[in-house]
What we know:
This protein is mostly helical and 245 residues long. It has eight helices and two strands. It folds into two domains: 12-205, no CATH class; 206-238.
Amino acid sequence: MYPVPEVAAAPAWRRILAWVLDLVIVGVVAGVLLVMAYYVAGLRSSGIAGQAGHLGLTLTYEAVRPGGGGVGETVGGAVADQWDYVALPYVLALAALPVLHFLYLVAAVRLTGRTFGKAAFDLRVLSGGARPSLGASVRRAAVTATAESGIFCLACVLLLRLEAGLSVLVWLAAVVAFWAYALPALGSGQRNLADRAAGTSVVPGQTFQRVAALTADGGRYAVAFGQEGLDRIRDTRRPPRYPPL
Length: 245
């Protein structure tokens, strides 16, 4: 764990809403990947119908050949191969999601110091009072992507590989890993496990305050300008003053 200078932590509600928005973005990407996988799997499964005749001939041969008796083994192997063939696009989509999640976090934090969610709620990731280095961004993204999407996607891949028991165990590990990642944010400094691993902190970006100050200044200038205009109008309407005779 890396120490971090004492800074004013961002309000919890803004961090939670920013985190939810980033998860929504990851969810949209996941939906796009799964829709693409669905269509690719549909194309691949349509070709299986054409293989049914070949499978039937194989089963007939296994049944009538001398010493034959491997029909059940042949059926099981064929069905397993076909399932793997159809499920492969989903496996690739689930494997790609944590990688894209990781790359998104690294690029956003390294280049701008904030993700889309944090930008929407005026939050910024800092390391030593400055934008995180590439190494800190990578460490932070690795912990975040693993806890939020990586282990869960692995559980789904195992389920697609028909490893139901192992999938349940990994899913339970994903739940434990998520809470181990998130709960430290409730402690001192409000820094989650990713922040503690990378030596970063999430602080208010001050953008809202600057906009409010500029708006207030603009309002004062507008009032002063309007008052000056009214004074000039009143001056033009005053009757001329003649000197006494």
